[in-house]
Structure formats: C-alpha cells, structure tokens
Amino acid sequence: MQAASNDFALVIFSVITWFSSMLGLPPEPRDPVFIKAAPADAVLYLEWAPRGEGKANGEEFEGLIGDPEIRSFFREADGSIRRLMIEIMEGSEDADRLANAIPEFLEVLMMSPGSISVRFDQSFIGEAVKRIEEAGEKLPVEAQGIAGIVATVMLQMGENPDEMEQHIARTIKTITEGGVKTNKLDHTELPIKIPGMQLIVHRHKEYLIISTHTSGIDASIAGIDGKDQGLSGSARFQETTEKVAIARTGSLFWLDVKGIYNAMTTGFGLPGIMANGVVTMLGLEKLDSMACASGIEDGKVVVRNWTNTQGVTTKAMAFASGSGIPKTRFDLVPRDADLVVGGSLDVQKVIAEYKKLTIALEQSERSDLLEDFQSNLKELDLSISELLKPFADNAIVYDAAGSGGLFFSGPILLLEVRDHELATNLLELIVSLVREKLPPFDERSRGVLLSEGEFLGEKIYFLDQAVRRPSMVTPAFCLTKDSLIVGIHPQSIKGHLRMLGDAKRARFSSRLSGEKGDIAVPEGKVLLVRYLNLQTVGKLTLPFLPYGELAAASQLKMSRFDITTLNFPSSAAILPYLKDHISVVVNDGKGIVYEGRGSLPPQIIDTVLWFLPVFGGGVLDELTFDQSGPRLPVEKQRVSINRKSSMQELLEPVGAN
After folding, report:
1. 182 near 188, Cβ under 8 Å?
2. Taking Cα atoms as reference points, which of 210, 73, 87 lies closest to residue 552?
C-alpha cells in the first residue's frame, strides 16, 4: 500500500509541475504586478504570462500554434461549444448571454495573464471558528486548519474590463439564482457551503481578484497600486526562482516546502502532526523549496525545475544518490540515435533505504520482484553487491537506425565496467549456468543454444533458436574493456561495434554542449538524460492520426459537439513542427536540477518516456517460449534457477498443453 501511496504522491506532484509548465505558451511579455500582488509569506505561487497566438510559418512550437489549420480547428471547437451551450439552455432567458459570456471568460482566463497564491495565517482560525459558532454550527478540530488558508486568484480582464465585469456579475447572479444581486464586483461575497470558508470577488482597475479572505483582496490591491513589494521582496523566493529564469517566461511556479511543513505542524493539530511524521520518516522534512519555469528560448519550449534538497540523498531521496554519468559515456552513443535514455542510480543504497522504510512503516508487504531476484542470486552463490561490484552505477539505452534498428527495434543497453576482471568472471559464471540449464537439441534438431562468435575482435553471446515459432527477441551480450553491451538480438550489437570503429560518425556527447549542442548541462552529477527524435516518431505514428480523429469526431458527434473529422488538423499540419526533445536531471550538490527543451512542452514527452520501460517490461513479463516458440503464460509462478531445474520448467507455462 505504501508503494501505491508514494506513486500517487508522485503523480500529483507531476501533474502540478506538468500543468504549470503548460500555461502561458507561447508567452507574451510578463506583467510585473502579479509577483508584487502576491503576499510575501506565500507558500505557493503560480503565475502565467499572456498567451501568444504563435507565428504563421514560424518554427517549432510557435509555428505549430500559429499554423492556420491548427487555429481553424480551435475556432471550430469554440463555436461548437457556444452552440452546444445555447442548445442545452434553450428556453432560458439567459441562454444566449451565458453561452457567450462563459466562453469569453474562459478565453480571457486562457489567453490573459494571471496568478494563484496561497498563504497560511493561524490567526484566522479563531475568527472563522467564532463566525461558525455564531451561525449555530461547529467546525471539527481536525478541519480548523483549513480556515487559516488564504488562497487568491488574480486575473487580467482583457481589453474590455468593464464589459467583462458585467459579464461576470450577471453570470454570478444567474448561478446563485439571484442570491447575489450586483452589477459591480466590489468585495462581493459569494455564498458557499464550506464551513469556515469565504469566497470574495473584487475588481480593481483591470484586474479580477478572487480570494478566500479579505486579506487576500487587500494584499492584491496593495501590490497593484505599488504600495507593497509582496513576494518580489522575498530573498528565498528570488534565490530559488533565479535558478530557473527564462528570458521569455510563460509560467513560473514556486512552492515553499518548509513553510508548508511548518504550517501543518502549527495549524492542523493532530492530523498535521501525523502527516509531518510521515514526511520526516521519508526524509523529506529537509526539503526547502522548489521552482519551475517554462518559456521559449531560441524557438524551443524550455522547462527548468530546481528543488532545494539541501544535499539530502537518504531515505526517499536516495534516488539522487548516483555518482553521475560521465560525459565520456555518451561518446559510445551515435549522435543520430532516435532514442537515448541514460541514468545513474546507487542501486545498493536505494535497496538499503527501501528496506529501512518498510521496517519503519511496519509494512507487511514486500516486493515480490526483489525477493525473487535475491533468492535466485543466492542459488548462484551471489549477492546483489557481488553482482553490481564489477559495474559503475550508470546505464545508457539507445536506439539508432544507423546501427541497424528502426525506432526502438534494436535498442542497446550499455553498462559501464568498473572492474574488467570481476566482470569477466561474472559473465563466465552466467554463461556456464545458462548453458547447463538449456535443454539439449531433440531428435529433430530443435532447441535453443547459447552460441558465441567474434566480430571486430569482440566476443558476442546470443541465444540461437531452432524452433517452429522463433522468438523475435534473441538476447545477446558482449563484454568490452569498458562496457557490458546488451541487445535484443546480435545484429544490433554488431551495429554498435561498427559505430565505435567509425571515427567519422558523430557522437551523442556533442549534443550535451552549450556552444553547438542541444542543451547546456548544468554543473553537477548527471542523474538522467533523455532524448527523443520526434520527427522519426511523427513519421511512424502520424499516418495513423486520421483514423484516430475519425473515431474522436464520431464520439464528439454523439455528445452533440458539432465537430467533423475535416475540422481536425491533418498530419501534414503537425509533422513539420516536430523536432528533437532532450532533457537532463542533475544533482548540483544543493538540489536537483531539471531542464528540458524541444518543439513540444518537454514534460509531455518525458511522461511518455517514463511509460516506455514500464510498457516494455510488462510485455516481456507476459511472454515465455518453449521449443515450439513464443507463448503467453496461463498462470504465473515464481521461477527458480536452482541446478535441478530444466529449461522446460523455466520456460513452460503452468497448465499449458
């Protein structure tokens, strides 16, 4: 259960940063008023710049947004929404007005700049409790901390603020069924049914302010009028956000982790103390703050994150404990690779910290994968430390058409060899065991054989098959002086060895340079590098786009949206704007740095790259094969590799005939 809850927390964190990085793209110049209007003690701040309309015939993301076909699709979608709203509210005197006012307000929300700030003030709790008691109600103790939260949203109201104010006021009147009767938004309090909470709407100059407390309205007004510097005067805020600065900023997100931790302790009673206890147990109590910014640089969408960890690499932060990937390792990868994923992780430390956490949290559940893996190693008279000792704590996976693999059809795994003698001994042990376990060829010369051969002076081992339905995956591996090379078939390893001998072929390391490369890698230990050639992916996948759009149009029609397949953008409108994507994660000693850049918002692509190994692992986990070829298992069981086992027992699915 703990693993599931940790995954959920990671998903929530990813959604917040992913959503914040999408706002305000492509950006117009920022409005400096927003930072001044946010309170100096805000624990959360999100700002987005006015969204531009892109550039027709422009490059990459701005060209995509400005493409006439793309813009036509958005106009059709907007018109369809308006027509549907009129149809739904037919017969209502407010139908036409609401059908136009709400989309216009949403358009202002999406295209105009705005901000969200959250602060915590414990002094407001008593005030809220008193107000509730006077109304004859009672606020539970465990929920009283909510009354101390002051959340404020501030929006620029576009070119016609007077007209927009009237739209909003009339919409509020309709939604509240006449409960709020005003044409002016002047500290207008909306009726809400949450005990202890207020919702106040106010217009000041060309800004719309919505807050859960009058203090939020007052702070915003002071910032707009230049009477207070607000969050812009916070040294911690400035120090953190300067590390993620982008010239053309689309959005800026800041989270005061330490401030939230303190607020939970002081204002949320027992639930807050218990929550912080879990945070402390996970080793996250020393996190100070984090910032995330997105924008445009040199035509590319750029996202930068920095999390101030104060150098902590224990407990849940053990994922940042890797020694880093040396840049020279990327000299072993061709520049024309379509996909590159490299990572550095201290596996032994992560396992040790995981065991400590499971004991501390008194979890009865254990990882079946880890237990099976350790059990099998014992049968080999090996421990995890002995298995990992010959290798450094970094690995790179890449796929390159120039080395013989069409996108992800011939991936190569490179493990850096730290001790060649130990690696050789380990490899010989594994080879002898596999050969012992493989069944001999039968009377019809059918079976699986671990073969070996030399190519360019290196020995390649691979599974040679003589079966009716041979598996398309034929594991192969090769040990060189500096790497253990693993492939899904020997041909990809041959392609890699040929690339190493070709001095004229450019290397991927040339991309990791600020001068002529794709990205300037920040100083520190490189924990993760991800690269994807979106042009290649687009050529493979976009031909299927019309069929997906046809299905989507059909579903929308059934939902009464007046959208046809002709309205959707064509593959030809999208493909020209797809270029390379690259991102890095670095431990700079004080915190974790993330930078991604590409023709599309980088965190969308990184999310896809996270799922690739999960998807691939799931497929491999479901596949087994015997002498007749690949087969899906009927029932899973734990696989043992003790010396009494036969290959048939290892590979034959339980219950198969």
Report:
1. yes
2. 73
- Alpha carbon separation from 221 to 115, 147, 226, 406, 511 (Å, rounded): 14, 22, 9, 58, 47
d(CA 220, CA 147): 19
SS3 149: strand
- SS3 letters for 154-165? EEECCCCHHHHH
Q: How far apart are CA 316 and CA 350, in angstroms?
A: 8
The string of pLDDT tens digits covering residues 407-430 is: 667 899 999 999 999 999 999 988
Name residues whose C-beta falls within 8 Å of residue 601's C-beta, 6 or more positions apart in sequence. Answer: 21, 22, 25, 61, 294, 301, 303
Tokens 């008193």 found at? 130
The whole-angstrom separation of Cα 652 and Cα 609 is 32
For 596, the token pair is 């991604």
Measured CA to CA, the distance from residue 109 to residue 50 in angstroms comes to 9
Helix axes 2-22 and 602-622, enclosed angle (nearest 10): 150
Query: What pLDDT score was predicted for residue 284?
Result: 83
Q: What is the pLDDT of residues 338-381, one digit of tens each?
A: 999 999 999 888 888 877 777 766 654 555 556 666 666 676 66
Distances (CA, A) of 52 to 25, 56, 606: 7, 12, 24
Query: What is the rounded distance in angstroms from the CA atom of residue 536 to the CA atom of residue 529?
Result: 19
Residue 349 CA to residue 374 CA, distance in Å, equals: 15
Buried b (16+ CB within 10 A) or exposed e, 473-497: ebebbbbbeebbbbbbbbbbbbbbb
Helix axes 269-281, 257-267, angle to 10 degrees: 140
Q: How far, in Å, CA of 567 to CA of 72, rounded?
A: 8
The reported pLDDT for the residue numbered 363 is 54
Q: Which residues pair with 254 in a beta bridge?
A: 45, 291
Which stretch of DSSP H or E encloses residue 538? Answer: helix 534-541
- Please give the backbone phi and psi of residue 596, each rounded to the nearest 5 degrees, phi first: -135, 145
Cα separation, 592 vs 425, in Å, equals 37
3-class secondary-structure state, position 483 = strand
Place of tokens 């007749």: 628
The model's pTM is 0.82
Distance CA 39, CA 83 (A): 41
Residue (of 493, 382, 495, 473) closest to 428 by Cα position: 382
Tell me if 152 sits within 8 A of 211, measured CB to CB.
yes
Which of 243, 207, 158, 287 minimizes the C-alpha distance to 38? 207
* pLDDT given for residue 362 in this prediction: 62
Containing 485, the helix (H) or strand (E) segment is strand 483-487
DSSP H helix total and E strand total for the chain: 21, 21
**Burial zone of 627 (CB within 10 Å; 0-12 exposed, 13-18 middle, 19+ buried):** buried
- Which of helix, strand or coil describes residue 211? strand
- What is the predicted pLDDT for the residue at 262? 86
Q: Is the pLDDT of residue 626 over 70?
A: no
Q: Give first-to-last CA distance, the chain, whole Å.
A: 37
d(CA 469, CA 312): 51
Residues 6+ apart with CB under 8 A from 511: 330, 335, 517, 518, 519, 531, 582
